[in-house]
């Protein structure tokens, strides 16, 4: 039998060493222990007896506690959020924060009780053809104009420059049209606004969307764009095939959440607003 060193008598409150070589004897736990069964003093104080419960050592029993509690920070860590940093985002979804206000271009098409959720321009891949045309036309114009200048063909060179200017103006118009082409999401509908001189506004209520999917080609997965297809209860749909939208996975999640969990969106926005108010 091995024992630890005995505490000196000059150290009040020092813990006594006990013999641990003896196998403990299992003891039955009282059915309904009450507060009176516990001693209200330190079992390790100098000269005190061990706290007992029904005649047995207190160390023979587990103390029952209430259900575990978790803080909001712990829950936000499980959700992948950042505590008070803002609304939590599920891991892997890569959803950016919701836009606070619509641009002037989109705000004119929203009615007062409608809640804006976001707007997106088409992906820059939509301008790939126009960009290629502009580069090819510039290279060809430089080569042809140089050759004509070398052979003193001034009039033909002027014609080539005019054709090149027309091509560049066409490409510039396509870039401006791309800039004004917006996909808009609210809590009630989706819209596509396009056109510079002739403005086209197509919309579909979220309640009428019966099916939706997005398709990403190999280049779409490489550069981050996709095509959406919306189905509704009606036969004629103003919005059916919406091409070249950026971040299609994020956009898909936002539309689906707005369709099936609008209360969750409102709760997230309300919590974000509360965090901002606390920060100010």
Automatic annotation (TrEMBL):
Keywords tagged on the record: Membrane, Transmembrane, Transmembrane helix
Composition skew (Basic and acidic residues), residue ranges: 12-26
One Pfam family from the record: bPH_2
Ranges annotated as spanning the membrane: 131-149, 155-173
Domain spans labelled YdbS-like PH: 179-253
Chain intervals for the UniProt region annotation (Disordered): 1-97
Domain of life where this protein originates: Bacteria
Protein name: YdbS-like PH domain-containing protein
């Amino acid at each position: 039998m091995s024992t630890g060193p005995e505490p000196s008598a000059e150290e009040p409150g020092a813990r006594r060493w006990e013999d641990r070589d003896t196998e403990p004897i299992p003891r039955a736990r009282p059915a309904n222990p009450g507060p009176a069964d516990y001693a209200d003093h330190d079992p390790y104080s100098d000269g005190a007896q061990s706290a007992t419960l029904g005649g047995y050592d207190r160390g023979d029993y587990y103390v029952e506690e209430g259900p575990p509690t978790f803080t909001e920070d712990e829950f936000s860590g499980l959700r992948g959020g950042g505590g008070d940093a803002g609304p939590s985002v599920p891991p892997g979804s890569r959803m950016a924060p919701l836009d606070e206000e619509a641009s002037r271009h989109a705000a004119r098409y929203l009615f007062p009780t409608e809640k804006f959720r976001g707007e997106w321009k088409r992906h820059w891949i939509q301008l790939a053809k126009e960009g290629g045309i502009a580069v090819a036309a510039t290279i060809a114009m430089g080569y042809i104009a140089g050759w004509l200048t070398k052979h003193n063909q001034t009039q033909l060179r002027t014609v080539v420059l005019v054709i090149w200017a027309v091509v560049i103006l066409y490409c510039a118009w396509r870039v401006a049209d791309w800039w004004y082409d917006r996909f808009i999401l609210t809590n009630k509908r989706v819209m596509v606004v396009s056109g510079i001189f002739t403005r086209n506004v197509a919309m579909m209520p979220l309640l009428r969307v019966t099916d939706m999917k997005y398709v990403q080609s190999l280049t779409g997965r490489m550069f981050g764009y996709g095509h959406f297809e919306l189905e509704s209860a009606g036969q004629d749909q103003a919005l059916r095939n919406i091409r070249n939208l950026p971040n299609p996975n994020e956009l898909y999640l936002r539309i689906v959440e707005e369709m099936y969990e609008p209360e969750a969106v409102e709760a997230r926005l309300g919590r974000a607003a509360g965090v901002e108010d606390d920060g100010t």
